Amino acid sequence: MSASTAGPNPDNQIPKAPAEVGVSGSVTDLTPYLPPVDSEYDLEMTDLKGPEEAPAPVEVIFDCSDVEVHYGEHRAIRDVSLSFGLREVTALIGPSGCGKSTFLRCLNRMNDLIPGAKVGGHVIYHGQDLYADEIDPVQVRKRIGMVFQKPNPFPKSIYDNVAFGPRVVGMEGDMDEIVERALVRGALWDEVKDRLTENAFGMSGGQQQRLCIARALATDPDVLLMDEPCSALDPISTGRIEDLMAELKERISIVIVTHNMQQAARVSDKTAFFTVEMAEDEKRRTGVVVEYDATDTIFTNPSDKRTEDYVTGKFG
Can you give the pTM of this predicted structure? Predict the structure, then answer.
């Protein structure tokens, strides 16, 4: 992958908005210059309010362009160009096998761990190309956490599960405080604070998934990737995860892969719809992005017929 020309921003600072420009001069009474009410002029009321201020642009944390992934000779996705904003939830939807999870793994270099996988294009994070030669994948995964489809706690205590990441990356500070803070953020502290030394396998499925979220949050990431985090959970546990996502969004950005259209509509700010291109021999499938827009637009007024057919259940 070639390095991006965008400059690095190691401090991840949000640019400050420019100060307002003051207007000098005094207000003049224009009454003497207006025609009298009973004159031949018809006075019309005009809107004296100034133009409404445009909403502040959202800071882009990920800017992906022309991303493609090969597994050996097979091209799994091609020409994926998406950008994700600060403190937004973005949903990736589409039929099975269209490359949603493959693309998600590009965002924190998890595809590096798959033999034969090769990533092309640019994945720019806070101005830095994540696939540049000098980038350490471990540090990438510290800043960009991930939660998988099925709960995958380690065969350790609840405490050691959460402490695992901070220990690996060498985080400084009181480990008890780090673990407690992560479990609080994962909406699990009150349920497990009296049994932190117990094996994590003794927890329910929903608790295990929230433990995995807390484990991902323990290294203080500013992005959380979620690969169908609720597919193996019951509706009550799913609701808790969605509530947790709404809370986490106040501090971090989230990118979620989901097959649940209702979930995408409930939790996300933006949605990208992926689909599959079939080769002429109908044996090779390549994932492409069809449409990317605000979630309300994707579900109520999509610009592409393929998107409309998918979100309305006509295929997929």
Answer: 0.78
